[in-house]
Structure formats: structure tokens, C-alpha cells
Amino acid sequence: MKKFGVGIIGCGAIFGVHAYPLHTIENVEVKAVCDIKQPARDAAARLFGCDAYEDYRAMLMRDDINVIHVLTPHYLHAQMVIAAANAGKHVLCEKPMSINLEDAKAEIEAGRRNHVTIGVISQNRYNSASVAIKTAIDSGSLGKVVGQRILLAWFKPDDYYKNSDWHGTWDKEGGSLIIDQSIHVLDLARWLVNDEIVSVQASIDNRNHPAIETEDTAEGLIKYRGGVQSVFYATNNYTYNSPVMVETHCEKGMALMEFDRAQITYRDGRELNVINNPNDTLDEASYQAFFNQSSAQSAMQTLSQWGVFGSPITIPITWKTPRPYWGITHIKQIKNYYESLAAGVQPDITAAEAFKTQEMICAIYQSGKTRQMVQLNQAKE
Hints:
Radius of gyration: 20 Å
Strand content: 15-25%
Structural class: alpha/beta
Shape: globular
Mean pLDDT: 90
Oligomer: single chain
CATH topology of the largest domain: Dihydrodipicolinate Reductase, domain 2
CATH class of the largest domain: Alpha Beta
Number of helices: 12
CATH architecture of the largest domain: 2-Layer Sandwich
CATH superfamily of the largest domain: Dihydrodipicolinate Reductase, domain 2
Order of helices and strands: EHEHEHEHEHEHEHHEEEEEEEHHHHE
Distance between the termini: 46 Å
Number of strands: 15
Number of domains: 2
Strand order of the largest sheet: 14-13-12-11-7-10-9-8-15
């Protein structure tokens, strides 16, 4: 079995949902971690019994590392992915792949030039609801997609931005609501339609967060080559992080996704309901033992109840506990990535695949800022 030595750049909030999957994969060994904050990198190094670096470039020089995970703030993704690729390392990067199209294209080129595989995290494609709806659409049982509506209504308090040195900024986060929160649901929606986007018309606004320079509200219309129109609305001004919703209207029925619940209703009366059981993905005892902490219990309870409308449910926020709105399917995507590397094939979500969503996100911002329709892929008409 081919072995992979791994280096992790970034030991912040998202670290835990990469650390646990890496711990469970037999042919993977974390050799080093890197973070500019000493407490974070020291804690991560103790977890794996590995080396710790302050400068990621020094870590890239190691011959025993052939895969790099990039888990840093958005504006650092492209430069770190490209540096790792130039060092001959495969890369798995958190979303978004970059904060602009030029850097995203440069990442794809770096991967091709150096013959390495670059993957980008879109873990919610592996949720039970997402898989059930994608399977129904791709099998043809629902017929052609006719239209779509997308809703995200979450809560981000002022402290979320005040306690960060990069959230809520154009130059570091690349936006806010769309590129950080809505990107996942917009990616799922685009993936379900599975067609080229030809135009985007959107509006963005900051209605309730005067301390930041980026958007907290957005809406728009996305048109696809085959005629499908997707309408979306997103806000960070609700009272809690309610389940995201994608309703896909098809010729032979309707597919409704609310986070990890799917309801597929056919015109002939058939109905399929899928509700995810977190225990099918994450073994609580193993997770808790790995981190030697009890907050996994709270995380599992929250995840199992997700999708139930009512009072907000709070859990301890540490990098050891998966936040419920992330989902818990990082483990599936990370395993797919390493299985693909071992087999010498491309993983499900490559940089080239992630670029399609990146292009959509950038078009939403361009349209929102200019108040003009943005046209895409026109050369192929």
C-alpha cells in the first residue's frame, strides 16, 4: 500500500475536521504541522507527535512529505497551494481555492505543470441528502432540471468579525457571506444542475454589520446554458444558523434539500425521504478518544438534530469540535482524495472542478459591485 507523508498548514478552527480523518487513514502519517501562532501549532504537533513549523516554506522542503493540507485564511490559499505544487507536493485545500479568478487559474496551472493533484474541499457534496438528490437527477428518474431556488439564512454576530483579523475584509476574505458561508450551498446547487453557467445577475449589500466592509446580504439569478434558472437569497442577519435549502424543480418531480435531509417527490406519487445519521459517518467514541475531550458528545447531539426548526443549539467552539453547519463529511472527501492518489486517478473534486464554483462566486461579486449582468462561457455559444 502506498504511504503518504502529510504536512498541514494552518491549525485553527477547521484543523480538527482534517486531523481526525487523517488519523483514521491507514496509509497516511502526519509528519509536520505549521501555524504562525505557537499555541496552535504546539497543540497540533502534540496531537500527532510530529514536528511543528512557523514558516510553511521550510516544511515544504522535507522529502518525507508528499501531501499538503492548506487550512489557512482565504487570501493565503493560492500562494500556499502554488508553493506546495512547485515543491512537488499534492495539495488538498479548504474552500475557497482563492479570492479571485487569476489566482485560481494559476493554481490549476501549477498542478498541471508539476504533475501533482490539487483537490478543494466541498464536503457537503457527500451528505446523504446531497447524494440522494444527485443520484436521482443523474439517473434520469426526475427528468431534466427545470429550475431551482436556494436559501441561506444564518446568524453572524458582530463579535464573529471583531474577533478576527481577516473576516469581513475584501483583501483577506475576498468578501464574506457569499465566499465564506454561501459558497457551499451554491456549489451544491450548481453541482446538481451540472451545466455551464452563462450569466449571473446579483445584488449584494451590508445591511446590519457596519464594522465590516463586505456583504451580509445577497440575492440573484443564475442562468445555465440549457435554460435552467436558479434564484438565490442569502443573509447573515437571521437569528440562528438555520438549515440551508435547495429546491430543484424537475420535469418529473421535486427534490428538496434542507441541510442533510432530502425529500424527493415524484409526480406519480412516489416519495423518497433521506435523513442522515451522524453515527454512519463519525464514530463518536473514536473521535472523542482521539481528541481526549468530551465535547464530541455535544457535537454529535447537535448534528443529529440539525434541520429541526426552533431555538438555536449551541456547542463548544474549539478546533476539536466540528461546527454543525460544516457537516461531518470531510472524512468522506478526505478519504476519497487519498484513495484516488493511491490509485493514480483524479479525486472527485479537483481544482478544475472547484474552479467552476469559483467562477460563479466571482461573477456574483462582479455583478453585485457593478450592478450589471455578468456573462460567462460566451465563446462556446
